[in-house]
């Protein structure tokens, strides 16, 4: 992780804040973390008050500070940009949260027990924020997690160089301190699972199962070895970093895709000691969905950006990949999504040798959740919700986060978790 | 080292290659230190105050505390440092060393006696080792020894008596260094003048408490569990220093040159002191913050200031702002104005709106869609607080515009 700000650096950055009358940063935070308020509190040396605002509004305030693409969220409308540069809101938020940790100050407390139980399925940011909100209101919040450790993508997919396991663990500690409990290695997928929860006395269920399905290249002849989807690659890197270093030493890696996951995979490969790491993207740099912060991180790590380059086939020896056939593109008219469409340029097809190809071309929700009655999903597998994150008309089932939105940012997952908690409290009357 | 002909000056009959001196403090503690300051460009020194050594001088530990504002360090500095703790003979030897090696620089011996005999002895000894001038320290606000420093200024007659004693034994020009911690600094100055002082130095440090420890309930600096009211200096006291220098320079029938000090860091600060009547300048806290090299830009900046106005010497600057300094009852109250907004340069923070609502005339409303203030000039008091908080400050986007015949604006009773 980047080094944290010192107190002096934080105060200097806070002093740059213009303390706007109608703070655009506040409007830009999906989790309503109120950067205008916590920066003002920091400016006037009320560090406990600042930490209280962050944590009360966003129990994932530490993690968001570290992983949020602030350039496109809170900092996007920062008035200070009119003078020089936007305020580094993420760095200030992190400073405040870590300072509170160092001081041993915990602004949140569990509510008076109301005897009601809620099941949260998935322990990513959506599930955690819902669970913490409910625990603060006196509910017994039980989080069911199919994997062996809580945190979802934050734990298993976001690389350590962006979010250290210790940092995440510290934030989880705050949530556990509220009485939120975890039942690990317990998947809730089917109607039967759901019925069982009801029998165990859970008055409502919040589905926050994330988007764990990785799209793969729709090209003929995908070999069995040397091609992996980004999520498998990133999870492996976190679980077995030593093995990865061994595997990648002196090797060349092609990462296909232009989003944050592609950047994460490329930087991870580079830091693990790969010789050359390429990002292949069929549009141009400006169309890449990756956040500016992540793109910069990748460039700083020495990743080569191969823009306007589209894979058209695998090159193999036996069952093993040896590279990709690619073609150069130019940008045509905008597609339905508004981005200019890549058009292959004839006669430019050529080979790019590689020892490993990582597919980072999109994440979507796991379709196995469809087995639950009354749940509706769209063609991308996203759970359909109505107001208050309600996912089933006839059952107290709610959903949020990437399972509803598709792959999105942590702050929006937090927002969904909070909204679901509010709706559940309304539904259950406490 | 660059020489600036325009900055040469004569003060109390002594020639200075430039008017910027170290003031009497830790920055002028030894001959070796002052030698480096001279090499850096200082035109003179008021050496660390010398006593005869009858009373043992011990500096409290720690002896200073910094005062910060947000992330700006050392906006002010509080100290409980005493006069020199070195043997009188060593200090005298250093004065001699400085005059021998830097004959063109001005060496002022700052002295503090506890009796008339001591004042005379110190003056005589300083003259004997070649000091160019004397500065009588009547103003250190935190001497741990009774009957010294600022306490002399508070028993004002002593200022005159001690000055007269010194003048009896020396032909050197004598400056009286005055404290601002008194109702009217010109009264002390009159006693000094009656005693025969040739000039005045103002200001010594301002009596202050720079902070209180919230864990130990101890004012700063924390000297073994106790704090004390003591001398405060640096940029934070510049407005007080400017006021005192101007009071002395304007005082009827005083007619003494003034060496100005208090918070000088830049040539702009220096120019302000000169314009309000200071003939020479003294610096300590700026050096404590930045080192002796700070003098380079003060000198060069002053030289540019004179050059761009076609001025040939400091006499064309010193005191030139005094005719424009009047008691408030001499203001022309018929001239009124409003804040003028160059909205093309506005970044949209709305701080002007907030302060106008909470501290001004409520003349600014806020356009939520455009994120810009909307001026209702008929309610503008012209107080200009909006311009003080506006971040678009160089050059300012909000300026004062005189409105001839502007009607009086009186807020109606609240309903």
Ordered list of secondary-structure elements with their pairings:
The complex is a heterodimer of chains A (430) and B (415).
Chain A: H1 7-16, H2 24-28, H3 35-43, H4 47-57, H5 61-67, H6 89-103, E1 117-121, H7 125-136, E2 140-144, H8 153-156, H9 165-176, E3 181-183, H10 191-199, E4 202-207, E5 213-214, E6 227-229, H11 230-239, H12 241-248, E7 252-256, H13 260-271, E8 276-280, H14 292-300, E9 304-306, E10 309-317, E11 320-334, E12 340-344, E13 350-353, E14 356-359, E15 363-364, E16 397-399, H15 402-405, H16 410-428
Parallel strand pairs in A: 1-2, 1-4, 2-3, 4-16, 6-14, 7-8, 7-14, 8-9
Antiparallel strand pairs in A: 5-15, 10-11, 11-12, 11-13
Chain B: E1 9-11, E2 14-16, E3 20-22, H1 31-40, E4 44-46, E5 64-69, E6 72-79, H2 88-101, E7 106-111, H3 116-128, E8 133-137, H4 150-154, H5 156-169, E9 174-177, H6 185-194, E10 199-202, E11 206-208, E12 230-233, H7 238-250, E13 258-261, H8 267-275, E14 278-283, H9 285-290, H10 294-308, E15 337-341, H11 351-359, E16 364-367, E17 372-375, H12 385-389, E18 398-402
Parallel strand pairs in B: 3-4, 3-14, 4-7, 7-8, 8-9, 9-10, 10-13, 13-14
Antiparallel strand pairs in B: 1-2, 5-6, 6-12, 11-12, 15-18, 16-17
Account of the protein in words:
The complex is a heterodimer of chains A (430) and B (415). Chain A is an alpha/beta fold and 430 residues long. Chain A is built from 16 helices and 16 strands. In chain A, the strands form 4 sheets. In chain A, strands 3-2-1-4-16 form a 5-stranded parallel sheet, sandwiched between helices. In chain A, strands 6-14-7-8-9 form a 5-stranded parallel sheet. In chain A, strands 10, 11, 12 and 13 form a 4-stranded antiparallel sheet that branches. In chain A, strand 10 and strand 11 form a beta hairpin. In chain A, helix 11 packs across helix 12. Chain A is globular. With 415 residues, chain B is an alpha/beta fold. Chain B folds into 2 domains: 320 residues, TIM Barrel, CATH 3.20.20; 70 residues, Alpha-Beta Plaits (2-Layer Sandwich). Chain B has 12 helices and 18 strands. The N and C termini of chain B lie far apart (69 Å).
């Amino acid at each position: 992780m980047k080094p944290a700000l010192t107190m002096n650096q934080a105060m200097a950055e806070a002093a740059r804040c213009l303390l706007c009358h109608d703070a655009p940063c506040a409007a830009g935070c999906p989790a309503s973390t109120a950067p205008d308020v916590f920066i003002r509190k920091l400016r006037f040396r009320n560090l406990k008050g600042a930490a209280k605002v962050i944590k009360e509004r966003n129990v994932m305030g530490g993690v968001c500070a570290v992983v949020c693409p602030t350039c496109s969220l809170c900092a996007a409308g920062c008035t200070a940009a009119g003078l020089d540069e936007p305020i580094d809101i993420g760095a200030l938020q992190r400073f405040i949260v870590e300072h509170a940790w160092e001081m041993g100050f915990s602004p949140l407390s569990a509510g008076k027990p109301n005897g009601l139980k809620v099941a949260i399925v998935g322990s990513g940011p959506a599930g955690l924020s819902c669970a913490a909100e409910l625990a603060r209101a006196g509910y017994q919040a039980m989080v069911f997690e199919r994997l062996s450790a809580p945190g979802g993508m934050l734990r298993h997919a976001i690389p350590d160089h962006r979010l250290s396991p210790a940092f995440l663990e510290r934030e989880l500690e705050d949530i556990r301190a509220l009485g939120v409990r975890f039942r690990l290695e317990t998947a809730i997928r089917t109607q039967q699972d759901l019925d069982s929860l009801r029998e165990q006395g859970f008055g409502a269920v919040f589905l926050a199962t994330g988007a764990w399905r990785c799209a793969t290249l729709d090209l003929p002849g995908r070999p069995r070895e040397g091609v992996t989807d980004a999520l498998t690659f990133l999870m492996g890197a976190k679980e077995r970093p030593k093995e990865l270093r061994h595997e990648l030493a002196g090797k060349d890696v092609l990462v296909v895709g232009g989003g944050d996951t592609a950047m994460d995979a490329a930087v991870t490969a580079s830091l693990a000691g790969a010789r050359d790491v390429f990002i292949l993207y069929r549009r141009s740099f400006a169309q890449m969905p990756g956040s500016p912060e992540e793109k910069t991180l990748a460039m700083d790590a020495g990743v080569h950006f191969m823009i306007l380059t589209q894979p058209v086939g695998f090159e193999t020896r036996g069952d093993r990949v040896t590279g990709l056939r690619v073609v150069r593109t130019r940008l045509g008219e905008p597609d339905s999504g508004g981005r200019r469409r890549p058009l292959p340029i004839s006669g430019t097809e050529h080979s790019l040798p590689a020892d490993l190809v990582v597919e980072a071309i999109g994440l979507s929700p796991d379709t196995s959740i469809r087995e639950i009655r009354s749940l509706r999903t769209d063609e991308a597998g996203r759970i359909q919700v109505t107001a208050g994150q309600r996912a089933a008309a006839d059952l107290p089932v709610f959903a949020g986060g990437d399972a509803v939105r598709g792959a999105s940012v942590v702050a929006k997952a937090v927002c969904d978790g909070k909204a679901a908690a509010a709706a559940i409290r309304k539904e259950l009357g406490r | 080292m660059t020489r600036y002909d325009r900055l040469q000056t004569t003060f109390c009959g002594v020639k200075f290659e430039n008017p910027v001196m170290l003031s009497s403090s830790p920055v002028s503690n030894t001959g070796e230190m002052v030698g480096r300051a001279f090499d850096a460009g200082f035109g003179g020194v008021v050496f660390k105050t010398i006593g005869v050594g009858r009373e043992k001088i011990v500096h409290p530990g720690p002896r200073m505390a910094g005062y910060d504002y947000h992330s700006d360090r050392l906006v002010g500095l509080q100290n409980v440092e005493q006069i020199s703790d070195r043997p009188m003979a060593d200090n005298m030897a250093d004065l001699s060393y400085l005059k021998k090696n830097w004959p063109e620089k001005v060496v002022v011996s700052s002295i503090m006696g506890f009796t008339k005999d001591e004042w005379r002895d110190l003056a005589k000894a300083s003259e004997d080792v070649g000091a160019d001038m004397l500065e009588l320290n009547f103003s250190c606000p935190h001497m741990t020894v009774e009957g010294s420093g600022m306490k002399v200024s508070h028993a004002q007659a002593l200022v005159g008596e001690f000055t007269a004693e010194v003048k009896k034994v020396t032909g050197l020009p004598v400056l009286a260094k005055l404290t601002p911690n008194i109702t009217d600094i010109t009264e002390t100055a009159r006693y000094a003048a009656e005693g025969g002082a040739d000039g005045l130095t103002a200001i010594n440090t301002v009596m202050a408490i720079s902070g209180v420890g919230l864990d130990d309930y101890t004012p700063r600096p924390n000297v073994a569990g106790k704090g004390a009211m003591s001398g405060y200096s640096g940029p934070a006291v510049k407005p007080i220093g400017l006021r005192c220098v101007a009071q002395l320079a304007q005082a009827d029938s005083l007619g003494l040159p003034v060496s100005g000090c208090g918070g000088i860091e830049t040539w702009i600060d220096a120019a302000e002191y000169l314009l309000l009547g200071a003939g020479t300048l003294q610096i300590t806290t700026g050096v404590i913050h930045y080192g002796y090299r700070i003098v380079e830009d003060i000198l060069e900046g002053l030289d540019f200031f004179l050059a761009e106005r076609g001025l040939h010497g400091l006499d064309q600057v010193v005191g030139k702002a005094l005719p424009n300094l009047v008691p408030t009852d001499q203001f022309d109250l018929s001239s009124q104005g409003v804040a003028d907004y160059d909205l093309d340069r506005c970044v949209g923070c709305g701080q002007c709106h907030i302060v106008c609502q909470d501290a001004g005339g409520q003349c600014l409303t806020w356009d939520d869609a455009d994120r810009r203030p909307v001026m209702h000039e008929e309610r503008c008091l012209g107080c200009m607080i909006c311009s003080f908080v506006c971040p678009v400050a160089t050059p300012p986007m909000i300026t004062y515009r005189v409105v001839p015949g502007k009607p009086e604006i009186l807020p109606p009773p609240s309903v």
